[in-house]
Input
Amino acid sequence: MAMVTVEVEYLGVIRLLLKKKSDTFSFDAEPSVEEVVAAIDARHGGQAAQECFRQLFILYRGGHGPGQVVDRQVILADRSLLKIASLVTGG
Amino acid sequence: MSYCGKALRVNLTSGSINVEDLSEELLLGCIGGRGLNMVRLYDEVPPEVDALSPENKLFLGVGPLTGTAFPGSGRINISAKSPQTGKLGDSNAGGFFGPELKFAGFDQVIIEGQATEMCYLLIKDGGAEIRPAQHLRGLEVFATQEKVREELADPKVQVACIGLAAENGVKYAGVFCNLVRAAARTGMGAVMASKNLKAVAVRGTGGLVPHDRLKVEAMLAAIDQQIRGHAEFQPRVLLGTTRLVHALNEAGCLATRHFQTGRFEGAEAVSGEYLAEKYKKKSKGCFSCTIPCSRFFELTDGEYAGLKSEGPEFEGLAGFSSRVGVSDIGAALKGVDLCNRYGMDVISTSECISFAMELYQRGLITLEDTGGLDLSWGNSESVLELIRQITYRQGFGDLLADGVVKAAERLGADTAKYAMHVKGLEIFQADPRGLKGYALGVAVATRGGDHLRAEPSFEFTENPQEGIRRFGAAESAFRLEYKGKGRVVKFYEERCVLADSLNVCKNTLVNMEILSFAEAAELLRADTGLAFTEEGLQKSAERIMNIERAYIAREGVRRRDDTLPQRFLTEPLPAECGPSAGSVVELEPMLDEYYAARGWDKATGLPTRKGLEALGLDKIAADLAKRGLV
Output
């Protein structure tokens, strides 16, 4: 079976904690958002992965817009772009 | 005790300076800061007063927690009748000025009249003097602060001042302290300038001794832990409000090209993340701050290399980038820096400029009107030139210097519908169609189109069970829904009143919802020794909201004025806005719910006599009755 590739773009606090703008992950099967975060944890560990579930997940199917907010159970297809962004909160 | 119990009253016409006692009843009833200022504003500035006349009064108010070890207790409220809106003027700044005023022995300063020549006020340890300031005329904000401190030969002196914009009569000029800490909304700087008052300098050596030190220390330690463990702590420390450029852009509601869309293709280049990675030197906080959300930056490349300053907040950053279509962060930071130095509100300035740019795009104004300025989206040179022209009231900038409402009136034709304001105050950098609680908050805000009067951030939680439990509607927890938002906004308005009257940072009290009314009452009892109760504090917050509503009602505000620009009510956000695409604001049902929650008349939006009297506002009820309003 072909590998599934997901690109993750980091925004907000995750980007500053990881000091990284993006990563590409490969999976044997279509992963859930939760499994992508587990992959981030495996690669980077530490506080950033823990912070992920406090952020907003925005999925760009096929890698382009318009993006949709998704929860951690959503399954990602090959060549998805997942952005992890700060929540909109008061400013 | 952490109240001083004193107000300083200065009359610039006669030169008289008096110290007045603040009664326990007054302090218990209106808490301090914003509450104290609003009581004075209603009582001492009746509707017939012209905002730029000597009869208008400027109130500087701090709260019972100002200058204490409570996190973020460095704020001050500056209030008057607004020359920008003709109604309620009130603005709030952080930094170190507020605490110094407390250390000098005052909870409030009342400035009346008009000096014959430019002056500044020096407040020092229980007294004050009016000093000549002709030599400060024409100085920018930073230079004024430096010069006054130099002249007084005391680096610990705190200075709140105006810049060139106020001196030149720009209606949305603010009052600035600690370089960029700005009470910028509603034109309080313009009021100060009308009084020929260039600055207020303050120095105090007194201390604040809590009534029950051990109890206060224990409570503050617990609050500190709550803050550090809060989900909002890391984002606010690392990025402050600048995180909102990407966050709102991804949500599809970042004010872009004057609200024509909610997605800005250049967001990354002007984002808080990019600023932090490339130019941030270190974090910066206010007095007694646990969440240092600001920053020092230095531009090291590009056309504006060498520019160094503090900030910016999201409102300035987005105001001079996405709102005007500029994707050069250097130019955006330069725009913010100019506003800070000249002493102008970044929200109103960016609205006036982006309004003009949309008119230019639509052919409603041409190069002939703009004096040859090309106002195409993204033309940062024109944006910066317009900031300068507004400040000096020259060329096309002169037309924009009284605010977007007046600009539209002068330009006529079909331009008024593009003016993005509520009750004469220009609105912020988020598209209300993507945040419906905020939309309602902006529509009903007592100082006009402003987001900091409510900040109903519960609508981002997406927790339907909590929505039902707290506000009786699952939908209230979702930003694109409208049900329940009337109750949400009422709740957050009162949190904002509490924050602004204690004069502490909204990061903690509003956005993190730390310090319940019960805890606030317990802390105030320990701090002041006065008999604060949870019920009493809640009633005070509601009372202050009603005083403000009564004040603007007396100035003519009704339900018809609690509205939003037509675009947000009828034009859906375009498809590119992803999660927010297709959204418009369902304002009327939210207004019905809001007035019901407030106990105000649904048809008119006016408070009722019974409601006012139940809050102990008998005098205001009688005043409104005399005017046929209740």
